[in-house]
Amino acid sequence: MPGYSRQRNRERRLAGSTRETIVGTSSSFPLHENLLFALFWNSIVFLFQWEITVVPLIRRGLVVRGRPIMGRIVDKKTQTGKTTTYYVLYTYDTDLGQPQRGKMAVARELWNGVQPGQLMTVLYDRSRPRRSVIYALGNYEAVRG
User: What is the DSSP letter of 53?
Assistant: First the structure.
């Protein structure tokens, strides 16, 4: 009897039950468990959203406003799992002479086209010198407009 379970839940709430329940679900979970699940799920969604939207915007901003400087490819690495990710590791010195290291995921064709020791143009953020991108390996191109 579906009406009976609704009536029973209503009576529990009115009686001052110590467990808060969500009415209308097939099983009643404590409210804090639902909040923990929501927090966990939203954290996962946030990380995906960050990688999909914010990281490309940061890289685009570096191409538009970044400080160009010469850097050197230090190493090439791959990370295998379900797919293979290709990384280029590089170093550069900021205008103030601070040495910085960078790591950039690139397409396989671009990864095959660079060698350790090769000089490349690096664009970096003066206010956050660790934030950088290798211009030739990036997804954006600077144009005058």
Answer: I
Task: Write out the two tokens for 7.
Answer: 């009536």
**Structural domain range at position 76:** 66-137
CA distances from 65 to 5, 28, 84, 126, 137 (A): 62, 53, 31, 9, 17
Identify which of 145, 139, 144 has the alpha carbon closest to the alpha carbon of residue 62: 139
> d(Cα 86, Cα 38) in Å, to the nearest integer?
33
Beta strands in 13-108 (DSSP E): 67-80, 84-93, 99-106
CATH number for the domain harbouring residue 91: 2.40.50
Q: Strand 132-134 and strand 67-80: pairing?
A: unpaired
pLDDT in tens, 59-94: 888 888 999 999 999 999 999 999 999 999 999 999
User: Among candidates 144, 15, 142, 7, which has minimal Cα distance to 67?
Assistant: 142
Domain count, the chain: 1
